[in-house]
Amino acid sequence: xxxxxxxxxxxxxxxxxxxxxxxxxxxxxxxxxxxxxxxxxxxxxxxxxxxxxxxxxxxxxxxxxxxxxxxxxxxxxxxxxxxxxxxxxxxxxxxxxxxxxxxxxxxxxxxxxxxxxxxxxxxxxxxxxxxxxxxxxxxxxxxxxxxxxxxxxxxxxxxxxxxxxxxxxxxxxxxxxxxxxxxxxxxxxxxxxxxxxxxxxxxxxxxxxxxxxxxxxxxxxxxxxxxxxxxxxxxxxxxxxxxxxxxxxxxxxxxxxxxxxxxxxxxxxxxxxxxxxxxxxxxxxxxxxxxxxxxxxxxxxxxxxxxxxxxxxxxxxxxxxxxxxxxxxxxxxxxxxxxxxxxxxxxxxxxxxxxxxxxxxxxxxxxxxxxxxxxxxxxxxxxxxxxxxxxxxxxxxxxxxxxxxxxxxxxxxxxxxxxxxxxxx
Length: 425
Known about the structure:
By secondary structure, the protein is an alpha/beta fold. The protein has three domains: 7-123, N-utilizing Substance Protein B Homolog, Chain A (Orthogonal Bundle), CATH 1.10.940.10; 164-216; 219-422, Rossmann fold (3-Layer(aba) Sandwich). 46% of the residues lie in helices and 15% in strands. Strands 5, 6, 7, 8, 9, 10, 11 and 12 form an eight-stranded mixed sheet that branches. Strands 2-3-1-4 form a four-stranded antiparallel sheet, with helices on both faces. Strand 5 (235-238), helix 13 and strand 6 (256-261) form a beta-alpha-beta unit. The protein starts with 6 loop residues before the first helix and ends with a strand.
């Protein structure tokens, strides 16, 4: 992860002999990333020269120990302290053990509850960035846009373990619920036009995918597909397709889909999803999803009825799923991604047929990546116009007919999409 890999991908590559060990480690490492700002605030106050003065490996040992003390009930305090001391010594030498022991025992003695953090009424930014455990610059942006209550709700949602949803491909959510119940798996339909069910237990995912023809997909991503709403005979190109949930869902509607991605490794995830779903499709159903390795900056198609481009973005709408991403984001990274998105939009616009549709989507909450990106594109390309999709309820649309799903409003991940119709002339 320190070499730049996302936590979810790095963790997926680790092998565990016992599923219980895997679950325990996942809770620990993902929990530390969710609450790192909170942990660091408590630790920094108890290190004489500040937490930043310590070696990064010692900081990690302190975070592990403190998270176990405060949030993992099955670990006794003395054991958490002892393990953290031993880990720090093994990484940085025996001399560091006394400091780690003293810092953690000070937290145990003084407590680490909400009352030890800035007062939200006097210092809302300080409170949301420390107790709320989000980068200060990002919280500041959000407070300039939304009320304190909305930002607090968003941050609290980001700090919870995310639910797992399945997007049902051919069965209704209600029928899927019945099929899962027959196998002892508890699930409930989400409704709201998403076509999704919520699994009550994370450990039932693998079995659930064997019971119901579906893809793992948050309702926000499902709404992007619903909003895209291609005609039944439309040829669709999904040009940033990995891991393939949107491409498979479009294919299940009956569309011919080309799913392309620049990453060969991630394109393998698309093929795996297509193969798994095709095996479950049953008699009379054919999933016409084809794959290709290609860069969205140089699309390997032409004259498509619909082009879906789910661009690389900051992912600020999915921070509950990718908690480490919040600590890697910077204003410079946001600017770089915004520039890349503009180039991708321009390249993809060239391969949309006359009267065809370009669907631009992100899982970001940032205006530069969403409404601002579309506004700039329309100024460059007057031959495109926003066209609201009829596939979703009006509650999910902004005043221009663009899809706008906010976690604090709907409880889903964040998502944005715009249907851009190309004129014939």
